[in-house]
Queue: 2 jobs
Job 1
Amino acid sequence: MAAFEQWVDFLKMVGISTLYQLIGIFGVFFAAGLVLYFLARFTRNAFAKAGARQLDIFLTGWIGTPVHELGHAFFCLVFLHRIEAIRLFRPNSADGSLGYVHHSYSRSSYYQKIGNLFIGAGPIIFGAVVLYAIMYYLLPNQHIPMTIISSSNLQMSNILTLDDKWEAVYRSGYEMVQAVFTHENLAFLSFWIFLYVSLAVASHMELSPADIKGMWSGLLTLIVILLLVNFFTLLFGLDISKYVFMANRYTGMFFGLFVYAIVISAINFILSYVLLSFYTLLRYRRLFNPIF
């Protein structure tokens, strides 16, 4: 009986270690993708209910959609998926899609199965890289926001500790707004180009339901592999969690970029809703709900 309880405790430890590792590495991406999805959805609802969906596509879609689809395509190449068809920007009024990447892979390849996880998350990862690049090349005082992005306050050793990091996240977001929207920056044309392009990219970084659905097979494959690895390593007294969490030195910078993407997307939603509400109030004598 004691041996059985020891095995149950051991299996619990294997499961908990696997869960911590998955959340520690990928939790930031899922959380940011979900927040960006709702902000993008509310913004598009506002344009649609104001009868201005084509304006939304014209303002941000022609830049943000190609970046979104290139994120999918890039990881298709990394994980050896075959790209059957790709359209970086082709608005479809029937289903509301703006572009697509159709791909296929070998069901017998675990590497390609895991690739589905990264292909689905490609837009938010690739979008963050694009944000970093345009910030570096276009923002006049780029060293200040980049210092905030790489701040140690945003280096999470475990996403499960995020509950005591909200103050740091809020402060970083506030400092980011102050660093970007300075009087000095307003005088540079490159700043306005950066602001527009970053807004367009951030508005399309979200993980859509279709993206999340495509990620499940890759996530399940990765979970099985991690469970097996943790089972055998913990069986011999080795906890690999500390090595897995070493990747956070890289994901921490992504988290900082996600903070900026969320801030700029929130600003975009608020401004869009206010201006569109003013428009519908003047023209139709009514207001609309962008949430539902």
Note: Residues 9-284 form one domain.
Job 2
Amino acid sequence: MKNMFATLLLAVLVTLGSVECQAAAKADKKAVVSVMSYNIRTGTADDGPNSWEHRKELSLEMIRFVAPDLIGMQEVQPMQADYLTENLTEYGKVGIGRDDGRRKGEQMAVFYRKERFELLDSGHFWLSATPDEVSRGWDGACNRMCTWVKLHDRTSGRDLFLFDTHLDHKGKQARLEGAKLLAERIQKIAGRNVAFLTGDFNAPATAAVLEPLFEAFSSARDKARMTDHLATYNGWGKAKPGGSAIDHIFYQRATPLFFKTITREFSGRAYVSDHYPIVATFQLK
């Protein structure tokens, strides 16, 4: 796929004005990083023909086609994490179960390209009033958490952070307080370093519950020169037409070059999950 990103990066340059194009052409290509957010759909759900066993190879195909440098996944059950780790050997992985801090429950699994990145540090916190222990926050229906990694980029020589999360699907207060906690913790952990936040936020960009994140960070979907505003939840084709984008990639101290919702078919099938993956490419500052 250095195919897909090379093609899209070229398209970005073509769409720029002459002065901007010259500046972009001089940009440090070694400092370009691609980031994916992917709600993989929990493997314990009885989705009939869309159940995990029928689409796990599609996930591998999609990831290898896009070939992102960094991936933040949501709803990853232990057997899904095991399958992906076993097959995506080019990636390192960090993640723990949200229900016991070990293997029980869904993971916010972070994958990073091992050849490019060195893992310097990692951690986890729960979206609750007691974030440093397994816990459920406010009016949330589930335990919710964030997993993060600090990486050294051997290509650019920079250190960067990736945070991955999943806000509650029912609790409005849990989403708001979770967003506040994320903004606070990310700023504390990452400081002024390059940082990305991926996730299923169960809310569109216009939702008031996401204001703490939009105040602290920028959205790749909003700021990239080439972008789209497609709905990210597809519901296996049953989602209402014109739905909203509830999966987001936030960032600081980077410049988004393009943003894309991955809606293409893989092996003749329309959906790799009930959410479309999203991917953004950044120039590091």
Note: Helices lie at 2-15, 18-25, 52-66, 78-87, 172-190, 211-216, 220-223.
